[in-house]
Amino acid sequence: MIKKNIKYFLNIVVFITAILTTESFASNILKIGVENAKVNIKVFSSLTCPHCASFHNKIFANLKDEYIDKEKVKFEHHSFPLDLAALNAEKILRCPPTTEISFQLLSEIYKKQNKWAVGSDINIINEAIMKIGLDFNLDKSKMKICLSDEKVQEEILNERIEAQKNYKISSTPTIYINEKKYEGKHEYKEFKKKLDKFF
User: Fold this and answer.
1) Is the peptide bond prior to 50 cis by the omega test (within 30 degrees of 0)?
2) First to last CA, the chain
3) Per the structure, how many domains does the chain have?
4) Chain center to CA of 83
5) Whole-angstrom Cα distance, residue 16 to residue 112?
6) DSSP state, residue 118
7) Which residues contact 24 (CB under 8 A, 6 or more apart)?
8) Helix (H) or strand (E) holding 177
9) Largest CA distance in the chain
10) Which run of H or of E encompasses 129?
11) Structural domain of residue 166, as residue ranges?
């Protein structure tokens, strides 16, 4: 089952790569914060990646309180799914009616990663992801529509392909601060120190 899911996922990526030469898709990157913020943070991550969850769980809440909400930082979540489960979680992440709710859902998806991103049965994984969505008042029938939305799937995989092409992503998470790769520890104190150099 795992091999089947990986093969299916890779076939999708190959298919999208092939059609990108003749067709383009609108980017729908998840962003929070003011557009003209002095600092722009880009995080390329896979929702099933434990290191991505660790980075988000340790940093995002404080970052939002101290920088994003004070209009100092714009934060971008760039989807870079490494497997079918991560791809489907990204689809659910785009279901909420507002960006604010999507980011709340993102934090919860990372917080509960070890509960939903387990096993090899994609149907069970999908149910577990949707269960998290229910806590944010997302309708289950709408989430099922999101999961089967081919246009959204193409947008997500296009993001992944563009990220690979432009940023040469070799692992997740890959973090950029004002287009410069962050190589420090995934700890808020060190991350904050790096940010404060811009202010």
Assistant:
1) no
2) 50
3) 1
4) 13
5) 30
6) -
7) 158
8) strand 174-177
9) 50
10) helix 122-134
11) 2-196
For the record, the structure tokens of 185 come out as 């520890």
Alpha-carbon distance of 12 to 17, in angstroms, equals 9
Please tell me the distance from the alpha carbon of residue 90 to that of residue 181, in angstroms, as a whole number. 23
User: CB 160: neighbour CB atoms within 10 A?
Assistant: 23
111 Cβ neighbours under 8 A, 6+ residues apart: 53, 57
The H or E element spanning position 181 is strand 180-181
pTM, full prediction:
0.86
| Chain centre to alpha carbon of residue 161 | 14
Report the CATH number that the domain containing residue 83 is assigned in CATH: 3.40.30.10
Distance in angstroms (rounded) separating the CA atoms of residues 43 and 175:
5
Residue with tokens 């246009």: 151
pLDDT of residue 153: 96
pLDDT averages per 10-residue partition of the chain, 199 residues: 55 48 56 97 98 98 97 97 98 96 98 96 97 96 97 95 94 97 96 96
**Distance between CA atoms of residues 71 and 57, nearest Å:** 21
Q: Which amino acid is at 82?
A: L
Q: Under 8 Å CB-to-CB from 42, ≥6 apart: which residues?
A: 76, 78, 175, 176
Given a contact cutoff of 8 angstroms between Cβ atoms, the answer to whether 55 and 43 are in contact is yes
Burial (0-12, 13-18, 19+ Cβ within 10 Å), 76: middle
Give residue for tokens 């076939």.
11
